[in-house]
Amino acid sequence: MKSPIPVNYEHLISRRTTGERFRYADRKTMPYALGIGMGRDPLDPRELAYGFERGELRTVPTMATVLTRTELLRGSGVDCAKVLHGEQRVILHRPLPPAGELIADSAVTAAFDKGAGKGAVILTETRARLAADGAPASTLGSTVFARGDGGFGGPAGSGRAPHHAPKRAPDLAVPFPTRADQASLYRLNGDRNPLHADPALVRRVGFPAPILRGLCTHGIACRAVLQAVCGFDPARIRGLDVRFPSPGYPGEEAVA
Q1: Does domain 9-146+171-236 have CATH number 3.30.70.600?
Q2: Helix boundaries (H) for the chain
């Protein structure tokens, strides 16, 4: 639903939260792993370690993106029904424990006005630390495209310059068929955006079917890296940046 408050640049750029606390346990850790496709081979002990609490439960590094979810744009005037996730950046300062409490500070760091009818680009950042000792846990950066909110008088621009992929075949490619219910599985992580579940709503905003979350494909890419080059060892991933140039749909094959 469109907010009755018009977007105001100064108000938007001032949006921030500090000291928010987020507790999680294996009931969060295991559904996240399953939601991004871990455990497809139930006989592989390397995958089993992410979805079975016997022994040392492992965490997928990109789970950091769902542990400190905050509603920075709610009440800002942005039409959240028309917001698309454009980029996600993750830095892991240490492997995430399978259970714990995080303290997070989040802020809108930049907003660029593409013009009336052309939308806006909004950048946010979240820094999380472990409540137990205050040690840095993760730094998250996000770029969203607010399709319905251009023309509010903010500065022109497009945000971060995209990484240019090499013009050659990839060194490794990991195909991963997503499930028809992949979006429904990923909803267990707490993201209830109806854009990923409600066929009537998504048709009203211009999509033929509910789309797969960018953060879900981000997790699938992380799973592919764990499989292909890390031996399923999460400590070997210190960061993962991705760009979402076009929507994907549950049931399609992802290649990371």
Answers
A1: no
A2: 9-13, 26-35, 45-48, 64-67, 182-186, 199-204, 214-229
pLDDT (tens digit per residue) in 38-65: 998 889 999 999 999 888 899 999 999 9
Closest listed residue to residue 143, CA positions, set 101, 97, 204, 88: 88
| Beta-carbon count within 10 A of 190 CB | 12
Integer Cα distance of 129 and 2 in angstroms: 34
| HSE, side-chain direction, 13 A CA sphere, residue 147 | 9
Q: Which class for 69: exposed (0-12), middle (13-18), buried (19 or more C-beta within 10 A)?
A: middle
3-state secondary structure of 204: helix
For the entire predicted model, the pTM comes to: 0.89
Query: What are the catalytic residues?
Result: 191, 196
| Sign, CA torsion 222/224/225/226 | positive
